[in-house]
Amino acid sequence: GQQLNQSPQSMFIQEGEDVSMNCTSSSIFNTWLWYKQDPGEGPVLLIALYKAGELTSNGRLTAQFGITRKDSFLNISASIPSDVGIYFCAGQEIYNQGGKLIFGQGTELSVKP
Amino acid sequence: ETGVTQTPRHLVMGMTNKKSLKCEQHLGHNAMYWYKQSAKKPLELMFVYSLEERVENNSVPSRFSPECPNSSHLFLHLHTLQPEDSALYLCASSPDRVQETQYFGPGTRLLVL
């Protein structure tokens, strides 16, 4: 089945550092979503992107919809301990696969105070 | 209550038991989903309901049986599960199937002994 390649798989950073993660796909998506999941909880939507080239911020988080429609990245600036968790990208093809949402494998972020 | 709620949050069951997971969404959405999340694996879509009609079943074993009595409620009936079925089961909803910005519940952590 179709997959997204999300990298890195894990990150260990110092509090205050900036973080960058990305997702790539072999096919074109019409929507990119970024979620964060805390341990024992469900994923929470952080940012939704609907247009190629779109750059959207949510506080210290910034995400972009790649111009080729095959990738997206998420940046976190000035990380804090509560940023710890697993970050998932998800992409959707509207015209194929019935609009199914495809998830990346996740990036596990650890922040050292 | 707001958003997507799931009960129970934790469940331990034997292989011969019958149990049900419940999901309720308070967002006025028309589509609801069941996902399975196992450790170190991407989210696996199990079932999709749109306007109370099952529109997708991703080759899920018959020991999992979904039910959607109305657009706000979704159940997952469990019967004679296997230990490998132990996972976090997540419910999600979206405004409709085409625009799949999905909002997740907190999940039910299931352990099959």
Task: Describe the overall structure.
The complex is a heterodimer of chains A (113) and B (113). Chain A is an all-beta fold and 113 residues long. Chain A is built from no helices and 11 strands. Chain A has strands at 4-7, 10-14, 19-25, 31-37, 44-49, 55-58, 61-65, 71-76, 85-92, 101-103, 107-112. In chain A, the strands form 2 sheets. In chain A, strands 2, 4, 5, 9, 10 and 11 form a 6-stranded mixed β-sheet that branches. Chain A has a 5-stranded antiparallel β-sheet with strand order 1-3-8-7-6, with no helix packed on it. Chain A is globular. Chain B has strands at residues 4-7, 10-13, 18-25, 31-37, 44-50, 53-57, 64-70, 73-79, 87-94, 103-104, 108-112. The mean pLDDT of chain B is 90. Chain B is built from no helices and 11 strands. In chain B, strands 2, 4, 5, 6, 9, 10 and 11 form a 7-stranded mixed β-sheet that branches. In chain B, strands 1-3-8-7 form a 4-stranded antiparallel β-sheet, with no helix packed on it. By secondary structure, chain B is mainly β. The chains are: A mainly beta (113), B mainly beta (113). At the A-B interface, strand 4, strand 5 and strand 9 of A face strand 9 and strand 10 of B.
